[in-house]
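= Protein in question =
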Amino acid sequence: MMGGDAAMVVALADSFFFSVDLAAARTQVLLFLAISFAPFLFVAPLIGPLIDRMAGGRRLVIMIVAVARVGLLILMSQFVDGLLLFPLVFASLVLQKTYAVSKSAIVPSTVRSADDLVEANSKLGLVSGLTGAVAVVPAGLLLQFAGSPAALIYGALLFVGAFVAAIRLPPEVVAESAVGVEEELELHSSSLQFASIAMTVLRAAVGFTFFHLAFWLRTFDNGAVLFGAAVGASAVATMIGNALAPQVRRMMREETMLSAALTLSAVAGFVFAVLGGPYSGVALAAVLNFVAALGRLGFESIVQRDAPEANQGRAFATFETRFQFAWAAAAFVAVAIRVPGPVGLVIVGIATAATAVQLQLRARRPDRAKRRRSSSESRRSPAGRRPPQGGRRRRQRPPGSRSGPPGVRKGRGRATRGRATGPVPRSRSASESRKRR
């Protein structure tokens, strides 16, 4: 799939998609973002559970996506210089997101354990990046010597290969039953909410930057080349992030990985905004895709750690749908607002920095509450009462016990002072009455 996506991007670099007037392009992109992504984002949560209960349901979705993308790329090759190219491109993007959700659901059924799942996702991301990098070379040559239609046909052939590979996937049932109470509680834990918010903002930053650069870089003479460089740098950065993520995970906690990803995104947004220039935008796209790859592995690890009873395939599909919604919503904002290039980079920095600060404050609240509870409990006596003010706590005696004078050792019904034996008065009043007698 990644190879076909790379070929499509290269083929569109010299097409009507990047040569139409900016104002007209904004209108078209906004229209097709709303038309194409709205049904996907609202229908996917409804039909997703039904597909998960079907034997081979997600595999069937991946096969349908591959066939549909073959047809779309063939149609693109016929309308590469017309307005019909816009709906075809956005339909292809919707199918790309559909594949991402289905892939997240089906990967857990192909591994043996949770630890293998983290490693499998990392390797899958690395292989996808390598495939995309290799596929770019023939697509570029075809674009140079045969034009965009030939590069699009080449991409269609790659999706045929994806269909053949999808046939070999096991026809597993992702989730046989509905979501239970325990699974619902685990998926709404504080740690998972922390991870979900962080990944949502990271994906939104990626989507915003992609479309912001698509319009900003077009204002330069070599805009198509610059945007191609941004796409290529993002793919390479994602591949590097997937390769380094397991090592980073061994050095720090998953929550720290996500916090570091947000912090690095904020710093990059502010620094590259100050530097300015189109290459700063290309560099920011690379940084965002790199930290998003690191954050994804951290998020998956948190899901496996804090939701062991949850169905992994269903959980990942649900969260991935949310992340794709954030990507599309941020893309819509990037196209709708018209801000200078550096200002868009500042927006990325502000959004990620604010999220990082908010999550850190949110993470400290439970710790403060625990410290307050522990301190209040330590001030209380075992019986639940506060000790008397201004003195030591009085030793409590078991019910029915009797007190004796200082230095008296008690035995079974008798008390002895040193080696002396004999009865000992029970109280001071009792001893005085004996003397009088």
Q: What stands out?
A: Residues 380-396, 401-437 have pLDDT under 50 and may be disordered. Residues 341-379 form the longest helix (39 residues).
